[in-house]
Amino acid sequence: MKKRLLGTVALPAILAGTAMAADLPVKVRPLPLPRAVYNWAGFYAGLNVGGARGRSDATTTPSCADPAPPLSPYFCSLTFGGQANAVAIGAGGTGSMSGSAFTSGGQIGYNLQYGSVVYGVELDIESFRIRASRQAAGNYPVGIFIVNPANLFTIASSVSTDWLFTARGRVGWAFGNALAYATGGLAVTDLSSTHFFVDNVNVVGSGIGSGAWTGSATKTGWTVGGGLEWAWSRDWSVKAEYLYLKFGSIGAAGTIFNPQPPPGYANAISTSTDLTAQVARIGVNRRF
C-alpha cells in the first residue's frame, strides 16, 4: 500500500521536473567570426631577382653617294656596278640577335584598396646586363680588278644594356591573402651598339677595307605584364611577376676605309638597332 502511494506521489513530481527542463533555454554554439580581409593598402618596399631574355634587330645601310676611282676596290664603285656590293653588305649587316641576363634590384610602391579591388603605383630599378651579338660573312658580287678571287667580307654587330628602370601602374583583385594584378607603364634603359667590318680585298698586295662604328643612348620605352602576390603575414608578402618591354632604336654611323690603291677609299655606313625583352622575376615586399 505504501509503495503504491509513493509511486502515485513521485509520478507527478517527475512529470513536473521534465516540463520545467523543457522550458529551460537551449545553449546554441556561437557561429565562427568572419575571417578578416587582408588589407593591401599602404606603402611597401622590397627586393627581387630573376632573368631576362632580350632581342635586337639590326639594319645596316652602306652609302653609295660618291663614285669610286675607276680602279678602286671600293665596294660601292658605280664604275663597275658595285652597287650590288653595297646591297650584299647591307644584307649581311641586317638581322636579329638575342641574349640572356640575370636581373636583380629593388622596388617601392603604394596601394589603395576598395573592397577587393587593389590599385596603385610601383617603381623599380634593376641590374639588366643583356649582351647580344651576331656576325655574317659574304662575297662581293662584283670583283673586277680584285686580285683575291674570294672577295670576302665580314660584318658584325653587338648590343648591350646595364640597367633598367620602370614606373608602372598596378590594378588587381584580392582574394584572401592573395592578389592577382596587371601592370604597365614607362620603361627606361641604356642601349649601346658596336659594329665592325673587314674585307680581304687588295689590289697591290697590301691593305684591307675595315671600319668600326658605335652608338649609345638612354632609351625610353613601355612595358606591360602581370603577377601574383601572396601575403604570409600582415607585414610581408612574396610575388612572382612577368614583364614585356619594348624600346626604340639607336643609330650608329661610321666609315669603312681602305688605304689602297692611293688615295684609297672611304665609304660611309650606318646601322640602327632596337631592343625588346622579357623579364620573369620573384620578389619579397615589406609593408609599412
How would you characterize the overall build of this protein?
It is a single chain. The protein has 288 residues and is mainly beta. The chain has one domain. The protein has helices spanning 2-23, 83-92; strands at 42-62, 95-114, 117-128, 131-139, 152-160, 163-175, 178-199, 210-231, 236-258, 265-287. The protein has an eight-stranded antiparallel barrel with strand order 1-2-3-6-7-8-9-10. The N and C termini lie far apart (86 Å). The model is unreliable at 1-16 and 18-22 (pLDDT under 50).
Uncertain runs? 1-16, 18-22
Beginning-to-end CA distance, first to last residue: 86 Å
Largest sheet: 8 strands, antiparallel, barrel
Helix/strand order, N-terminal first: HEHEEEEEEEEE
What is the strand tally?
10
Shape: rod-shaped
The chain-level mean pLDDT equals 83
Fraction of residues in helix: 10-25%
Give the total of domains: 1
Major sheet: arrangement of strands: 1-2-3-6-7-8-9-10
User: Could you say which structural class the secondary elements and strand pairing correspond to?
Assistant: mainly beta
**Strand proportion:** over 45%
What is the count of helical runs?
2
Question: What's the gyration radius in Å?
Answer: 38 Å
Care to give the gist of this entry?
This protein is mainly beta and 288 residues long.
Which helices and strands, and how do they pair?
Blueprint: H1 2-23, E1 42-62, H2 83-92, E2 95-114, E3 117-128, E4 131-139, E5 152-160, E6 163-175, E7 178-199, E8 210-231, E9 236-258, E10 265-287
Antiparallel strand pairs: 1-2, 1-10, 2-3, 3-6, 4-5, 5-7, 6-7, 7-8, 8-9, 9-10
